[in-house]
Amino acid sequence: MNIYEIRTKAVREIGKAGSDTPELDADLIIGDVLAQNRTWILFHRNSQLTDEQAEKIDSAIRKRTEGLPVAYITGKKEFYGYEFIVTPDVLIPKPDTETLVDFALSAVTSETKSICDLCSGSGCVGLSIYSALLDSGIKYSSIPNFTFVDISQAALDISKRNAAKLLNPISVQKISFAKSDILENISGTFDIIVTNPPYIPSGEAAELLKDGRNEPLLALDGLSEDGLGIIRNLIPQSLAHLNEGGLLAMETGEYNAEKAAELMRKAGFRDVAIEKDLAGLLRVVHGRK
After folding, report:
1. Whole-model pTM?
2. What is the CATH number of domain 88-288?
3. 95 belongs to an annotated ligand binding site
4. Edge-to-edge, what's the strand order for the sheet holding 114-118?
5. Where do the domains of the chain lie?
6. NCBIfam families under this entry (predicted)?
7. What residues have CB less than 8 Å from 180, skipping those under 6 apart?
8. Is 196 annotated as a binding residue?
9. Which 3 state secondary structure label does DSSP give 35?
10. Would you say 130 is a known binding-site residue?
């Protein structure tokens, strides 16, 4: 079987299973098995596959038709221009969350000495901020210290692997990891806290997972009908763990961003505002202590 034949099969079966992007899914699966990009696949469509390669691609196609996301099949996902390791222990990074990274980067100054990525999951938010700062040419000595906090040890293990993958051994020395339910086990304070907490209403979170996507419910379920159950505890804890003038920047749903902003104001945050994502939807709520 050649690449064209198996790609045609993959697109047909993945599309029939309900994917909105069967061509992309097929190319990512084939590219992962062959360690090649989409351009190479296009120009080598008549190349013959080994039996082992065909079997691996067929196995991946079956997993995709059962609802498993491509990122969990390949074990990787691009986010903010960087490639992250992902497993079902962490959420797959979403393009909407790049709005949180953009806003956080705009808030970093020479006075920023410490950043916390709270509910860090794969570490994609904090590590993208760190990597972007390094790529901008900022001296290593001026890079803030980063703390990654998550309730899941399995998620923290993934973020550690991503830190080792994206950063050199010296850069990793500015990073620490802590297992904690929100900030209950954290004693320090920060200049910036960025967070993408669970914010989906409980009923909707469970319903989302029925399609076989296999993402961790722990990282989705906001533990209330409005999705703000965790955020109601996160906001006051964040205020207590910010330095004076410190920033909390938090991703929310477009359906509960305004209520989250009101919770921040009532807790004592000032200059509370909401940023929109690329689709024009309310996405990042932020305020200062």
Report:
1. 0.94
2. 3.40.50.150
3. no
4. 175-179, 145-150, 114-118, 190-195, 242-251, 282-288, 270-276
5. 3-74, 88-288
6. hemK_fam (TIGR00536), RF_mod_PrmC (TIGR03534)
7. 149, 150, 151, 186
8. yes
9. coil
10. no
